[in-house]
């Protein structure tokens, strides 16, 4: 009798979650962005969720939870109820570089998430304050050779994209600047424009408008081709530092255990957003790279995360990055 009751409860439970997934979503969804508002991850999140909300018929509310290079917000999201009502925007730092820099990281990027899909590729630029005493990358490198110890570099916390790509840049040019941490590159960019910090390596979607406006200097983009959004900015290869090639990415994740039907609905909404003309234009005007159709699946994101963790760990160790 007890066994029958238990089986019945299990069946009813499954039926209920099946029904829940079927009717999902029935209320607003929270997306945790693990950096300060206004920065690149926040910008990508707000652009894609704008259209996703329309497809899903429920608002996706952005909650900025910054700290520890993004790992604070991602930890909170990973530990939230896996019912589809809490999702997150992770990236190359939180789901690639962080394991190398946080030995006690409270999540495993390759195991503790239900990948939803890639949202945007975000090439990396070397940018500096407007009155930095160098007109091009060669001048910048010469200045760093002579005065590297007097220069500071902004970043969004250990393990963030701007930190890990900055560490890689500094190790290639042999520089040891003073590292200045922010809760995101949104606030770091404000200080760069205020000339209170010297340079950083940041995602194009954050800095493109200020470069186009002449408010900061851009020395090079770390991709094989120039960006259509910044045709005057040379590639690192053109600027004489071809060894520095790196591009970041931002992607949507849910906590592990989120029902497959819910994952499918969220992925469908993201794919529809990335096919929407206006959403594409908003990302591309900022230099964002739209993932190719085959790169928009949960499986493809899982593979990307696994390969990024495997790639960044030795790179950051070789660059002598200090773990937290
Ligand atoms: C941000 O949104 O502030 C960035 O993604 C931070 C970073 O990882 O550099």
Note down, in words, how this protein is organized.
The chain has 324 residues and is an alpha/beta fold. The chain has eleven helices and nine strands. Helix 6 (161-173) links the parallel strand 5 (152-155) and strand 6 (178-181). The longest helix has 22 residues, at 2-23. The structure holds D-malate.
Low-pLDDT sequence parts: none
Number of H/I helices = 11
Shape, principal axes of CA atoms: elongated
Give, in order, the helices and strands: HEHEHEHEHEHEHEHEEHHH
Radius of gyration, Cα only, in angstroms? 21 Å
**Average pLDDT score:** 95
Please outline the major beta sheet. Answer: 7 strands, mixed
Q: N- to C-terminal separation?
A: 55 Å
Q: What portion of residues is helical?
A: 40-55%
**Secondary structure category:** alpha/beta
Report the β-strand fraction as a percent range. 15-25%
Ligand set = D-malate
Q: What is the number of beta strands?
A: 9
In summary, what is this structure?
The strands form 2 sheets. Strands 1, 2, 3, 4, 7, 8 and 9 form a 7-stranded mixed β-sheet that branches. Strands 5-6 form a two-stranded parallel ribbon. By secondary structure, it is of the alpha/beta class. The chain contains 11 helices and 9 strands.
List keywords for this structure.
single chain, 324 residues, alpha/beta, seven-stranded mixed β-sheet, 9 strands, binds D-malate
Topology:
Blueprint: H1 2-23, E1 29-33, H2 40-56, E2 60-64, H3 71-78, E3 86-91, H4 93-101, E4 113-129, H5 137-147, E5 152-155, H6 161-173, E6 178-181, H7 185-193, E7 199-203, H8 204-212, E8 216-221, E9 247-255, H9 260-275, H10 277-285, H11 298-318
Parallel strand pairs: 1-2, 1-3, 5-6
Antiparallel strand pairs: 3-9, 4-7, 4-8, 4-9
Helix pairs in contact: 2-9, 4-11
Bound molecules: D-malate.
Residues 35, 39-42, 70, 91, 93, 156, 160-162, 184-186 line the site of D-malate.
